[in-house]
Amino acid sequence: MRISLITPSFYPATAYGGPIFSTLNASKELSKIDDISIFVSTTNADMDKRLDVNLNRWHKFQDHFYVKYYHDTILNRFSLGLIWGLWRDIDSADILYIQYIFDISTPISMIYAKLLKKPILLSPRGSLCARCLAQGSELKSLWLYWLIRPFAKYITWQATSIQERDDILSQFESVDTVIVSNGVDYESFQNSKRLTKKEFCGRYIDKEIEIDKIIVSMGRIHKNKGFNILIYSFKSILSQYPKSRLFIAGADEGAKDDLVSLTKKLNIEGEVFFIGEIQGEEKINFLANADLFVLPSHSENFGNVYIESLATGTPIIASRRTPWNEVIEYDCGEWVPNSIYETSRAMLRVLERDRELMSVNSKKLAMRYDWEQVADKFHNVFKSLLENRVNHTLSL
Fold first, then answer.
1. Whether the Cβ atoms of residue 27 and residue 61 lie closer than 8 Å to each other
2. What percent of the chain is modeled with pLDDT above 70?
């Protein structure tokens, strides 16, 4: 079963954040399944630069997993090489798996797949939420109507959560949808180094601070992530936990200066630290040694960092504009409206609970999202797509 995965960007284009890693990890795990091979067709785009990779040839990532990079002719806008190369790549595949909607490769891929009679699985990657559609180009509605809607009922849509499924159905009624979430490499998040609070501060801000509670957050420093709500909420809990400190990790996408100004306005610049982007072992240690992870994001179709925090055993607070209501059932965090009042109250409630018990519960929930289990769900979806194609052919 050869899967042609079409995406406008791919690892190591880490500037695009979580989706890059989730696509990489899903591909790695899927390629371990005996009857699946993954062939990724992508570009060399990496936000404001291009990857230094050899173009127009297959790179072997691991057994049964290959990636081909095409030159992004107009950075983040258009790749002539990808458009020309897709016909051959799709023709060689059994199933087409497209990620993202607002890229010209998506409608082109669907045209090719329809002509070649290939089944399609399409993942919007969170781009159909109301907030996302309201942001950016006013041409999005025209794009959806003229370039996506003609194919909507001929494909299967992948949502990463019930919330994203509802977003899909709000735009395209009565289409076929399946829910397959993102995942986490659970075992890799069990290898954290236990740090004292003093060691934590020395490691991430190179300062010795007397500290009681470590509260962390992580994500692109962007308005959508709700870091301003987090900072206001943190200010309000200092009256009860005056020795607590807030550490925010992530690459700046234009919002950091305003957030730094906010900490100065609230007179808490000495209690809030922006530590930049961290990955790998440093990210695991950062999450594992915190008392609480908080991200009051305005919209997430999944939110990889929430499950990563849970995998390390650190409870989370997520907004109701994310799909993490399961933390209530598992007693490993709070799922609240992303307002200052609700977020600060939730922070206080979690900090007062039994940290060890919440750690155990956090890991129980995270184990349900291990990539091996997610890959099995994908496998079932792909088998179903092939069976439906065969049945349709026989009925003609």
1. yes
2. 98
Structure tokens at 97: 């798996």
What is the chain's Cα-based Rg? 22
- Tell me the C-alpha distance between 100 and 290, whole Å: 33
d(CA 4, CA 9): 14
Q: What is this structure's pTM?
A: 0.93
Evaluate if residue 360 carries a pLDDT over 70. yes
The answer to whether the CB of 217 falls within 8 A of the CB of 248 is yes
pLDDT at 136 over 80: no
Distance CA 356, CA 315 (A): 10
DSSP 189-223: GG-PPP--HHHHHHHHTS-----S-EEEEES-BSG
Task: Give a three-class secondary structure readout of 250-279.
Answer: CCECCCHHHHHHHHHHCCCCCCEEEEECCC
Q: Can you tell me whether residue 336 is helix, strand or coil? A: strand
Q: How many CA atoms lie within 13 A of 4 on its CB side?
A: 25
Parallel, antiparallel, or unpaired: how do β-strands 316-319 and 292-295 relate?
parallel
DSSP state of 238: T
C-alpha distances out from residue 34 to 1, 65, 92, 246, 308, Å: 9, 12, 18, 45, 27
Q: Is the pLDDT of residue 71 over 90?
A: yes
How far apart CA 380 and CA 52 sit, in angstroms, is: 36
- Tell me what pLDDT residue 392 has: 55
In the beta sheet, which residues pair with residue 276?
249
Burial class (CB in 10 A: 0-12, 13-18, 19+), 382: buried
Question: Could you report the per-residue pLDDT of 366-388, keeping only the tens digit for each?
Answer: 999 999 999 999 999 999 999 98
| 309-353: pLDDT as tens digits | 999 999 999 999 999 999 999 999 999 999 999 999 999 999 999
Q: Is the dihedral of CA 152, 384, 19, 89 positive or negative?
A: negative
State the Cα–Cα distance between residues 147 and 126, nearest whole angstrom. 18
355-to-72, 213, 258, 352 alpha-carbon distances in Å = 48, 11, 33, 8
Handedness of CA 105, 9, 25, 214 (dihedral sign): negative
